[in-house]
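User: Some background: our group keeps a shared notebook of sequences we're curious about, and every so often someone picks one and asks for a predicted structure to add to the entry. Today it's my turn. The entry only has the sequence so far, pasted here. Could you supply the structure so I can complete it?
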Amino acid sequence: MPTIAMRLAYNGGAFFGFQSQSDVLTISNALESALRSVGIYAKITGSGRTDRGVHASAQVISLKIPPFWNDLEHLKHELNTKLSPNITIKRIWHVNENFNARFSAKRRGYCYILSSHISPFLTPFALPYELKNPTLIKNALKILIGTHNFRAFSKKDSKDSQIQTPQDFVRTIFHTKLIRYKGLWILSFWGNGFLRSQIRMIVGFLLEIDRGHLSLEDLERQLQGELIYRIPIAPCGLFLTRVDY
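Assistant: Of course. Here's the predicted structure to add to the notebook entry:
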């Protein structure tokens, strides 16, 4: 059976996260239901499991499909008709049989969006907050670049937190960025992978720095393992924006 990959976007606020669950609607549940309706019963693999309320503009999934689906553009059209309005498949393409959307990924990008304005049209996708010290936040973002043990920025009740080996919490952040776009502040992070709620905890920490409640030195101490502040920010502003292979 051919193996394909799909790049998709979704409104995470309409679902209880990405991972399939039996009692609530998740992104995987919706995708699998749409796939079954067109005769595809394969298990899907996502590049990452976004939490409840987290969005994506470039999530990637992989799966095997029956040979009769040789027209991928037609398949995309059929699935988008069923997945609308909260999920959109942007692209479908053939990959080799060993491709795995999660384990083949080399680099992932996320962004967190802050809005200077309070609007019912923006609040589902951006946290209302005006940065006071953007230069300070840019300096804080530079501290995060590199390879670190992010255990102090991982969710306590996550599966990651049950792992005893320190190496399992090590991640590399290749690049960070803060940009101003009209009335939005966009914080971007590119890395080889992220722990559950890691970016939301980092952004929460950064906003405490911006408020003057924490310092750059506090950030460095937490990166070294000291637990200073680990409250995740709201999921509404977080987007999975890129997956590279």
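Suggested note for the entry: The mean pLDDT is 95. The helical segments are 27-37, 72-83, 134-144, 198-211, 216-223.
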